[in-house]
Amino acid sequence: MRDVDPPGKDASGEDHRRGHRSRLKDRFARVGRDGLADYEFLELILFRSIPQRDVKPLAKELIGRFGSVAEVLGAPIARLCEIDGVGEQTAIDFKIVEAAGRELAKGAVGKRQVLSSWASVIDYCRAAMAFAEKEQFRILFLDKRNGLLADEVQQTGTVDHTPVYPREVLKRALELSASAIILVHNHPSGDPTPSDADVRMTREIADIAKPLGVVVHDHIIVGRNGHASLKGLRLM
């Protein structure tokens, strides 16, 4: 599908569109993201993707279909292109914005001691995984000062299961000379509540890690509806 301007636009319609775009950009410059509704923020992105069209109805439809800006940006390209008016290039533009957001969040984590910037860790994990349609199992590998050595996705599974192999997790930690790890995975259902299997797997990894001198600081589960910390819940 091509992103095209529908026929029949007269000069006054074009002037109104330009005026709306200028006003919205000016408001963003003055008050920032928090001063805009979700659909208005999407409009700002769509302005560059679809320069010759009133994109407000499309922005509202996207929010109505997916629920939030984050869920629009996190949606797969194929699902985005199911929306009338969203072509492949527009969908790719959304994915570029999503990737930029992840890089910003990752930068906030990578420049600090991870345990002293816990809010940044949570923000990064949510940006990276909360809206994925399949489960992913991610590990943050830390050095002796709790600085980030590496951030790796170890496994990608189905909508409700990811195979995790504890000995492979520890093998990789030893390869990187990591002193500690943080386990992270997502629940595509949106509910971050740990399952019994999540708790068992975490304890198994911690049991294998301890004699090897590797500390498991936490296991974070993220979803659209928030996050859960197994350490905070006293489940490890």
Order of helices and strands: HHHHHHHEEHEHEE
What is the residue-mean pLDDT, rounded to a whole number? 87
CATH architecture assignment name of the largest domain: 3-Layer(aba) Sandwich
Biggest sheet: strands, sense, closure? 5 strands, mixed
CATH topology of the largest domain: Cytidine Deaminase, domain 2
Helix content: 40-55%
CATH homologous superfamily designation of the largest domain: Cytidine Deaminase, domain 2
Low-confidence stretches: 1-11
- The coarse overall form would be elongated
Strand tally: 5
Q: Which structural class do you get from the secondary structure elements? A: alpha+beta
Number of helices: 9
- Measured between the Cα atoms of the first and last residue, the distance is 50 Å
Radius of gyration: 21 Å
CATH class categorisation of the largest domain = Alpha Beta
Number of domains: 2
Strand order of the largest sheet: 2-1-3-4-5
Share of β-strand residues: 15-25%
